[in-house]
Design goal:
By secondary structure, the protein is of the alpha/beta class. The chain is 15% helix and 33% strand. It contains 4 helices and 11 strands, in the order βααβαβαββββββββ. Strands 3-2-1-9-10-11 form a 6-stranded mixed β-sheet, with no helix packed on it. Strand 9 and strand 10 form a beta hairpin. Helix 1 packs parallel to helix 3. The two termini are 14 Å apart.
């Protein structure tokens, strides 16, 4: 399975169009959205953005961000729970928008957005991932992640270069 991971879109149809054009988006089995999808004080709720996401709804696993409204799930056509989880090989993957303060066993992968700053590291055997923001980065580079059974790579949206990489 290949996953395309992004967060903090905040209704930016222009950023979403760049992502959709990427081969890694088009070839992904699943798209993971880590919250703040349509709203948040930037471009505002975007019907164009919602329509583009709805076209891919069968591949999307998403969580609700602090700027998302409960009604956004109906608009988007997919659920927006606060937390989600699934298995990837020997790893349990945990999705949320805000960083989680729980303890996780070694081998788990914890993904969140919210900060608009990318991170990828391993601590006590747990892998922590924040893909940064695809639209409004606070660390200077719009970014996304690609994950498969071999590892996780953070990429710059503009030139697709690998910014950080962690293998399993």
């Amino acid at each position: 399975m290949r996953y395309f991971v992004f967060s903090d879109l905040h209704g930016s149809a222009s950023a979403l169009k760049k992502a959709i054009a990427l081969p890694s988006f088009q070839k992904a089995d699943r798209i993971l959205l880590l919250g703040d999808i349509l709203r948040g004080g930037y471009e505002g709720a975007s019907s164009e953005c919602a329509a583009l996401l709805k076209e891919n709804k069968d591949r999307i696993l998403a969580v609700r961000g602090n700027c998302d409204d409960e009604s956004d799930a109906e608009t988007l056509g997919f659920p927006l729970p606060e937390f989600r989880g699934f298995s990837l090989g020997m790893h349990r993957v945990h999705l949320s928008h805000r960083p989680q303060v729980f303890s996780f066993p070694p081998g788990d992968i914890v993904m969140n957005g919210h900060t608009h700053r990318k991170t990828l590291y391993r601590d006590a055997g747990v892998i922590y991932v924040n893909p940064g923001s695809i639209a409004y980065p606070r660390d200077g580079v719009a970014s996304y992640a690609v994950m498969d059974e071999n590892g996780i790579r953070l990429h710059a949206l503009e030139d697709h270069s690998v910014l950080l990489e962690l293998t399993f």
